[in-house]
Amino acid sequence: MVRAPLTPEQIAAGRRLGGVLRESRADRTVADVADRAGISPETLRKIESGRLLTPSFATVVALARSLEVPVEKLADVVVGSPVQTG
């Protein structure tokens, strides 16, 4: 089965998610956040850089917990809602 190409909206959503994760990580290392989330550092690098645009829901939830960010904030980023800081 061949996977359909991502739409421009899906690509933009993946890039927004990566940016918010990178920003939320702040001064924590990729290795530390990835370890706490139970994923490889390379997977986190790919998500943050936009090379992995559609991470699994479980991965997003694990990252939200690792970064202490409400998963709802990440969901809002993916659907294009304004991000509330604080």
UniProtKB/TrEMBL annotation:
SUPFAM superfamilies, sorted: lambda repressor-like DNA-binding domains
Span of domain HTH cro/C1-type: 21-74
Matches recorded under InterPro entries: Cro/C1-type_HTH, Lambda_DNA-bd_dom_sf
Domain of life: Bacteria
PROSITE patterns, sorted: HTH_CROC1
Alphabetical list of CDD domains matching this protein: HTH_XRE (cd00093)
Signal peptide region: none
Protein name, UniProt field: Helix-turn-helix transcriptional regulator
